[in-house]
Amino acid sequence: MTTESANAGSVALKPKQLHVAVGVIIRDNQVLLSLRSKQQHQGGKWEFPGGKVEAGETVYNALARELKEELAIEVVSAEPFMQQAFSYPERNVLLDIYLVTEFTGQAQGLEGQPLQWASFAQLSQLNFPDANQPIVEKLQQQFM
Ligand SMILES: Nc1nc2c([nH]c(=O)n2[C@H]2C[C@H](O)[C@@H](COP(=O)(O)OP(=O)(O)OP(=O)(O)O)O2)c(=O)[nH]1
Ligand SMILES: [Mg+2]
């Protein structure tokens, strides 16, 4: 059930929360990042690839679908890492973050987006959406 339908009919509607499946794709101690296009929300910033969970979809399935659509990779193995809620002035997000520890295929920016592999230390130097700060910190604590 989406947040919206769960709240349908209630008096005080909660702000809409967008559920997002996010993949921290790790290979050889590096993480795959994708540049959000200028037209997107939080455009021009680096992201961990992923996208919105659709109605009736598991987070894992959403993650696998998005990584195939955006990067042409097939998830073989992924595990939950953390959840991060964040309120931007214009929307509330719930990031459902998975570690993608095994995948097949060579990552390409299928939507024309630049990609880069970054070390865990390099993550501190890059511009991410504000919601990502705790994710970067936890990754650095765990993997550096
Ligand atoms: N994928 C991703 N989204 C993030 C991250 N950090 C962060 O705040 N977000 C936010 C930005 C967006 O508001 C939302 C993701 O939505 P999106 O619009 O990119 O989702 P999508 O891939 O389904 O995109 P679209 O087809 O609607 O263009 O989550 C992140 O690291 N990765
Ligand atoms: Mg996306």
Identify the notable features of this structure and list them briefly.
alpha+beta, Nucleoside Triphosphate Pyrophosphohydrolase, hydrolase, single chain, 3 helices, 144 residues, binds 8-OXO-2'-deoxyguanosine-5'-triphosphate, globular
Describe this structure in words.
This protein has 144 residues and is α+β, with helices and mostly antiparallel strands. It has a single domain (15-143), classed as Nucleoside Triphosphate Pyrophosphohydrolase (Alpha-Beta Complex). The chain is 20% helix and 38% strand. The protein is built from 3 helices and 7 strands. It has helices spanning 3-7, 59-71, 133-143, and strands at residues 17-27, 30-35, 46-47, 50-52, 74-87, 92-104, 115-119. Strands 1, 2, 3, 4, 5, 6 and 7 form a 7-stranded mixed β-sheet that branches. Strand 1 and strand 2 form a beta hairpin. The protein starts with a helix and ends with a helix. The model is unreliable at 1-10 (pLDDT under 50). It binds 8-OXO-2'-deoxyguanosine-5'-triphosphate (8DG) and magnesium ion. Residues 50-51, 66, 70 line the site of magnesium ion. Residues 15-141 form the Nudix hydrolase domain. Its EC number is 3.6.1.55. This is 8-oxo-dGTP diphosphatase.
Record the SSE blueprint.
Blueprint: H1 3-7, E1 17-27, E2 30-35, E3 46-47, E4 50-52, H2 59-71, E5 74-87, E6 92-104, E7 115-119, H3 133-143
Parallel strand pairs: 1-6
Antiparallel strand pairs: 1-2, 1-4, 2-3, 2-7, 5-6
Bound molecules: 8-OXO-2'-deoxyguanosine-5'-triphosphate and magnesium ion (MG).
